[in-house]
Amino acid sequence: MICFKIFIALTIAVWAVPLGGKGQNLVFNGSFDEPNVCTEYEAKCAPAAWFYVYATGPGWGYKPKINSSPYAIQLFSARKKDNTRSFWQTMLSQPVVPGQEYLIEVDVSAENGGPNMNDIGIVLTRKMYFAIYAEYKLPEKYISFADARVTKLNNGWYRLSKTCSFTDTMRVLVIGNFSPKSNAQLLKERKNKDGYIVTNIDNLSLMRVAQSGSKTSAGATIINSGIKDSLYKITDRHRGLYELANRKTVIPVENATPQKNANSLADTLVIPDVAFAFDSYQLIDRPLLVQQLQSVLRGRISKVLVEGFTDAKGSASYNDTLSTKRAGTVAALLTTEFPLVKYLTESRGSGISTKYDDDSKNRRVEIIIYKLQE
């Protein structure tokens, strides 16, 4: 049985207040010192709020006690074995403002001498790219540190600093080696006989700087705690993300509570538990769901949120994982079957629900379709 309901929703955009001089860091956990203990391996294998774009194996790339700090991250800037590189990604506390000048700083070192400024760069995008153990397609444009200001620190570390601006309101930051040169070419140029180049990264920051002639005094940037809480909550670092590889699905989303607004409407499609195999996140009747969605995925859609729930049977961690996977399965169907919402779809698992007395209603996936009024 499919249930529909309509409610009023408010989409809140959070922007920074103008700043004088340096602003607050837009990068959550930019020092990488807050670890995330993954549920699969019970290991501190990643910094909270950060995710692999490519990884060579569980736990690789997050190292304690380097650069005189609790933790730092490592990148395969080039690897001969399988012609891959590793990247890390996160969401900023707010989108960058087009035309605004920003200061980027990061501490780097290299295990085999260096560092080489060409081994590190940054890209800002709109969506997170979950493709673990899959080759990451390098973008044509990126922020290079080849021309950065270099400050020598202790123990072979250097601080890179540069200013830049952006042309769009993007909020996903990816860091790694974006050089268009092949790995083989990079290794040959460095006369590297180890077959890989490792770059250590620490203390990454992205901050607004005052516009020329601005008289605005320094102030605090507004931090979107909903985004931060959502990023920190994700603990499936390996198997869970692997299943989302190459799907256009974003897991971290704002935990905003729908509020009233006359200019925004939302349709909610509730998928009951019978749409899934027992204790599974595999859809039983995919064609039927596609048919049901065709009637609601119309009009001026601004966002689609897929949210998974379970009943109270089983542990909280198990149900968090199951609800996330069910939501991810439905989101993957949406982005595959409906080009209209391919880049508007977000998903999250909210775990145990006690909203209804009937547990069969608590086991559900909700598809919330935000539409602008005609």
Question: What is the mean pLDDT?
Answer: 75
Q: What's the SSE pattern?
A: EEEEEEEEEEEEEHEHHEHEHEHE
Largest sheet: 6 strands, antiparallel
What share of the residues does DSSP label as strand, in percent?
25-35%
Alpha plus pi helix count: 6
The low-confidence parts are 1-21, 214-222, 242-263
Helical fraction = 10-25%
Q: How many extended strands?
A: 18
Strand order of the largest sheet: 5-6-14-8-12-11
Radius of gyration: 22 Å
Count of discrete domains: 2
The CATH architecture category of the largest domain equals Sandwich
**Could you say which overall geometry the principal axes of the C-alpha atoms support?**
elongated
CATH topology of the largest domain: Jelly Rolls
The CATH class of the largest domain is identified as Mainly Beta
Distance between the termini: 29 Å
Instruction: Decide which structural class fits the backbone.
Output: alpha+beta
Description of the molecule:
The protein contains six helices and 18 strands. It is of the alpha+beta class. It folds into two domains: 134 residues, 60s Ribosomal Protein L30, Chain: A (2-Layer Sandwich); 185 residues, Jelly Rolls, CATH 2.60.120. The strands form four sheets. It has a six-stranded antiparallel β-sheet with strand order 5-6-14-8-12-11. A five-stranded mixed β-sheet has the order 1-15-18-16-17. A hairpin with a 6-residue loop joins β2 and β3. The two termini are 29 Å apart.
